User: What shape does this take?
Amino acid sequence: MKHIINPPISEWASLCKRPILPNEYLEEKVINIINKVQMDGDKALKEFALAFDKVSLIDLQVSAVEIDIATNEVTAELKEAISIAAHNIRTFHLGQKENELIVETIPGVTCWRKSVAIANVGLYIPGGSAPLFSTILMLAIPAQIAGCKRISLCTPTDKNGNIHASILYTASFLGITEIYKVGGAQAIAALAYGTQSIAKVDKIFGPGNQYVTKSKELVQKNGIAIDLPAGPSEVLVIADKNADASFIASDLLSQAEHGADSQVVFLTDDQTLVEKVKLNLLKQLKKIPRADIAEKALANSFSIAFNSLQECLDFSNLYAPEHLILAIKESEKYVDKIENAGSVFLGNYSCESAGDYASGTNHTLPTNGYARSYSGVSLDSFIKKITFQKITEDGLKNIGKTIEVMAEAEQLMAHKNAVTIRLKKLSDEQ
Amino acid sequence: MKHIINPPISEWASLCKRPILPNEYLEEKVINIINKVQMDGDKALKEFALAFDKVSLIDLQVSAVEIDIATNEVTAELKEAISIAAHNIRTFHLGQKENELIVETIPGVTCWRKSVAIANVGLYIPGGSAPLFSTILMLAIPAQIAGCKRISLCTPTDKNGNIHASILYTASFLGITEIYKVGGAQAIAALAYGTQSIAKVDKIFGPGNQYVTKSKELVQKNGIAIDLPAGPSEVLVIADKNADASFIASDLLSQAEHGADSQVVFLTDDQTLVEKVKLNLLKQLKKIPRADIAEKALANSFSIAFNSLQECLDFSNLYAPEHLILAIKESEKYVDKIENAGSVFLGNYSCESAGDYASGTNHTLPTNGYARSYSGVSLDSFIKKITFQKITEDGLKNIGKTIEVMAEAEQLMAHKNAVTIRLKKLSDEQ
Assistant: This one.
């Protein structure tokens, strides 16, 4: 972890650039996969499973028997934890429901928006280096609150053709049974365009590796909606002298263990904290199984000592972190200074893992600086808001002239005529 | 306009496919334009203005003098109309502000979302075949309600290097003075990546031709946020025997005059209405200046007579129209049957032009079937919702175990440790 002291503002923008893992011909490779799925459907999916995962699949869809077996394998302790996390996530996302507000903009002209669920959604759950069953909770619970009619889930198998029990259990706990043994770029293509077994969806959600991400990017270009543009996960911690160096180190490591391309950033106005955090990182690194991954991520990461907390906050707003931890005294006072971030954790006991799993907030968040313009996944991600308007005869009399004048000025006379012809009928009737 | 009677459901999907105007090498052309703007900045913009529009520009930014001249040119009548429309649009979009809801998901764990404006937004306003000043109202008013810090506007000039007075006046009426004489794919590239004169923005809004649309699609692939994927404008009218054939014809034409690639669809359960609408179309076509454009659009369009209103609604939900007019008796009764549409107009006097200009709803809407998964532009389009959470010491005691169990099951031990280390400190302190 590189340490920088008071960098001049002119250097901030380049510090905010995220590390990129090169992958030559990634786009060409993914385009080929998508084309093959569009052409050959299920056959292509089975061929890719054999080629990439060395698995020979007969059925793509998970059977009820497989779900039963998984349910028996998951411990009571984990079942209890999943149930508590689901409760909190449901509670928070239920609060995102909006009431319809009917607005009469001018007498006789009423307008409102109605939230309607996106009918068919597809969830991608990675199963590679860690079985991310928590992501099922984060995506399926708001989808169910929204009222999506169909929730399809794709996830890769292990070398034996099995899906991790915790993934199958979590899906089935939520009542999701449409689960397919398909991973990678080909899963995204199947959800986007449909195959014999997998019906196409209207929107695709979920994280993944570079192939999955590129595949989502390419199908979006063809008009398929996706949750968010994606990049490696990241955390930025701002701490003052009241923070606990061992807590900070644990938060940095919990992000660093995600992947070699993750980035962690530590900002402080207290120079002495930097050395303490460094020592704690070394100490804690020894104890975690994914230390090799975390070390690679730390090599791409940095800490900065600034003169003031204000500079820390300014830098953070420019960086636009996915996760932002404010380990500072009276952290609530700084809420209004946060301009760009995915999810913010206030104080010494609001650790990022809490939001990753169980506090109730969503963990699908904008990375790579996208927090400047994107929100994380929420109930909003699973609905469309359709506008409605009802104009009475009097209402049209009230705004008719305005429409006619504007349409004429835009040289759109048929637009004008749609009003004129109605106003004429109303005046003829009088 | 092709007329179809009771098509079998098996044919519905192909009827819902939108006409596509072929444009060979469009993507390659636009990639070249974007690359040149990224490389040469302002110089490229001026070269494109000369090559495409035969205009030699000295300054890209519109001057205060030009705005003053435009303000004098616009009639008092149009100024009044713009003011009324702005009032209605502001009233409707102000109603979209959300209150922060603080949710305690479990004792000691509080979570909420805060709406924060996207700092820098870029608006593209076409100036080609019609000066669409109304789009400035639709985009800039919600941007101002959201609190965006900077609103930049790009619009092409005419052959004399001038921007239409109504565009300059509307922008200046709203207090927008950062206006650039740049059109086409190159304007999108300038807003996305910045040039010497034009600072880059965080999100790009606005309609345009195929080049503009393709350019937005390509910069989005590189992580620049855009409002909506775009396609030609469209309307679907559902009418029963209580509808007025002349009104329906006027609504169909007001959509058809937008462009040769626009599509209009007319559905009814009353066969006799079809002929009446056809006669009214012929009659009204003769009177509109853009009849040649409207005729081309009508050639790509169709009407269907179904046996029931329910089938009309089912077809409409599959088509997912940008604009949907329900010219049926007691139209409010059908609101809950609408699953996919951008904006819905209820009854005989709610004409689409009203929503295009002045009723208050936004006219930037999902086309091309995107209404299945996208909402139109609203206040939401100009904000991010940042999640916050505050976990107290007791809160962490309440959910700590849950997090530890889940993190361990996902094999992310550093995530677990961030909790363990805190719980240990709390128990040591007791």
